Amino acid sequence: xDVKMLSSIDEELDSSEVAALCFLxxxxxxxxxxxxxxxxxxxxxxxxxxGLLENNxxxxxxLRTIRRADLLNLLETDSRRPEESFDPxxxxxxxxxxxxxxxxxxxxxxxxxxxxxxxFFLTSKLGKRQMENCKTALDVFAEMEKTGYLSNTDLxxxxxxxxxxxRQLALTVQEYRNGASFLxxxxxxxxxVSMDNQLNSxxxxxxxxxxxxxxxxxxxxxxxxxxTQPNTESSLPRDPVTLHMSTNNAHSS
Length: 253
What we know:
Layout (H helix, E strand, L loop, with lengths): L2 H9 L3 H10 L6 H5 L4 H10 L7 H9 L3 H7 L6 H4 L12 H12 L2 H15 L1 H6 L3 H10 L9 H10 L1 H11 L18 H4 L26 E2 L15 E2 L9
């Protein structure tokens, strides 16, 4: 993939977006390899090392998920567009985890007030200090994974807490349980199937194989802590990214 294009995309990403992209990549890149990522360039380098940027498909999914249509358009100016470079007979199309995309959707729609409620309800199980250190919903989800209260096959605690905070978001979890896909499909692109279908009992769909760092089982409760300084939209900090993401990302429903 063109290095100049990736550099242009990196320049447009703020630190909270880089942290969100790292969270979405937890199932395809090793946690330790993500802990040192401080900007988009380093993330793209790690994805490239894993062969995840051989065509634009995976990066397109990432940008589409964080709703950066402007950067997606920039990406598609590349001469090797996803639909042109993909050969269904020979290529595997790595895809995001529906589980991670579902968590990202909740993170985007959770208000700051409901985030504080969620942290309050989880304090007795996860610890006061841990909850105080969580600045965004993604931080909370990662802490829940670390302590064994959340995985792609164990959503009981998350569903219970959301029922107390935001019942509409609790329905989002139930939709995932019922087999709903949260991957956004681009017409003409390779067919998408979440890696969740390979790791649990969610209904299988026909498509290509996903790629993981070590073929981990998501039940192993992975956790990644991003430690960034609070950012503004105009700043592009280059401090190492660990699991504590910017407080600016607890969006209103």
